[in-house]
Amino acid sequence: MTDKDRFVPDEGLAPASTALPGGAGPLEEFTKPPSNQWREVWDQFKNHKGALYGGILFLVIVLWVYLGPVIWTIDATHIDIRARNQGPGFSHPFGTDQLGRDTFARMMAGGRTSVSVGITAMLLALGLGSFVGVMAGFFKRLDGPLMRLTDLFLALPLLPLLLVMMLLFRDPLNSAFGPEQGIFILIVVAIGVTSWMPTARIVRGDVLALKEREFVLAARSIGTTNTKMILRHILPNVLSPIMVSATLGIATAIITESALSFLGLGFPPDFPTWGRLLFDATDYLQQYPERVFWPGLAISLTVLSVNYLGDGLRDALDPRIRGR
Amino acid sequence: MLTFTIRRLVLAVPTLLFISLVIFLLLELAPGDPMAQVPLTVPPEVKEKMREALGLGQPMHIRFWKWIVQFFWIEPQVLIDAVFGSSFSAGDLRVISWQTRSPVMDIVVQRIPQTLWVVGTAYLVGILIAIPIGIYSAYKQYSWFDQTGTFISMIGFSVPPFFSGVLVIVIFSVNLGWFPSIYDTTHKVVDWDSFVTQLQQMVMPVMVLALQITAQISRFMRASMLDNLNQDYVRTARAKGLGETTVVMVHVLRNSMIPVVTVIALGVPSIFGGAIITEQVFKVNGIGQLLIGAIQANDLPMVQTLTFIFAVLIVLFNLIADVLYGLLDPRIRYD
To answer: Does the ipTM surpass 0.95?
Structure first.
């Protein structure tokens, strides 16, 4: 005891104004409203350089593929056979392909498909994963069966199964919805159904932890129903892991779609996607190696930016790291 | 530990049966017709005979049962016969490929060495590069080495193999002319020169695969090292005067390897099945290419058997990873 007394400086009784610089000022800090949680997340996110640039780059790519055709009006399927196999120039910034189609326009059209598939498949996987995760975490009876189901899906060899699904269900869906819509639905559903498992596991873990917290008990004690409980108290609190898996899900979906197109089991040949453009360009690898470069670069940059975005979001949304 | 292993092994049986049923039903519900390639001039009754010859005449559950018997009972007998020269399986019907009319497992056995050579080497190379990078990145956290390592592994995550593969072909094969762009599987290693040729044709696929493997494992290694470097036992080890090398390379490394070893074990199934795209890019005729070819030719027994083999490997190595985790880390007790 005596030792400790000697070490503790005698400032506990002094007014705060002498101990803390600026402490004597007016009590502005307390009159300000408490800062918004999302503002803090944004502040943390801003400081993560990679995430910020990744986010900006992803935004630019999305704007380019969706709004680009408004400015660059050449049709992606317009064939100009006299202008075939041209190098980069003023009229065709990325050159033309073996049928004289403008590569710049095709890149935008391909990107539109790839990004749309990526985002839609991610939303589907996220919806499925969150649903299974919340159900398994919230209802004890469902936990066992749903988690065994998740393990089962994790044990399936995914790429082979995807390839088999593409092969088997392409024709009936094509005849039902038309060649482009049919294959779009097929790819989105196939990717979504095979990639919800990580989200489900993470969400379940968080829900299990949340269920033991006092505010859930409080809400329960005033008679909140299960539906209200999930929608109002559980879901907002598991939003951060869901958002992180969302960004990473876009990356996986874009890569998977490109891989399918690259293996020749994706969209039909006249319907450009980045994977398809890359696949077509490999035939001209010897003569025009630069053609491989653009779609490959587009896929890689998109996935890289999304990965950095997810990395930054994970740091920004984690309250344990925030403020460091 | 033993009870846990046995329990998991017993649980693996229904899992695998269910997976085989899913694969079977998926292929069964498929609208594809194996007779689609047969010319229209062939009369319908002959077509019906051909269908029966392929084993398609019977109802679904009987064919599923036959496949199970062939895969789990007859094929192991064939394996025993091949090893010991006995004749248990004489006269039994094996799983037959519709493409080649020869047993599926024989083709798989022919294709496995190519896959193992290329993908296995890449896996080893990737691990050997990743572990030192992970250790040093964690030891010098936020240094320029760490930042570069993070960036490179982000690239490894983001650049898909069908782009990096094509890119290295453009650079090293088209422009520089150092390595052949197509992997020659008929090449036999007999002397030093042919060994050098074999190495040359392996460099590019191995490079592409190793980049991805390195990216993943070095991230894991770094995270695991960082977890351990801040532990109290590290301070104790330093305080009692151990050298920095001993502290990091013995105390911290051994503890950090525990999760990394399980991650490595979990990745082994991908050696056999996951390199489908890389094999396609470099024209390595391994297992992955066999699957693609079978899918395009509508060869259902082949697709079913291959997909199921991948599933068996995934389940098996998941089990191995769990058991390894328990063996390596005495804090974890399953019982």
So the answer is: no
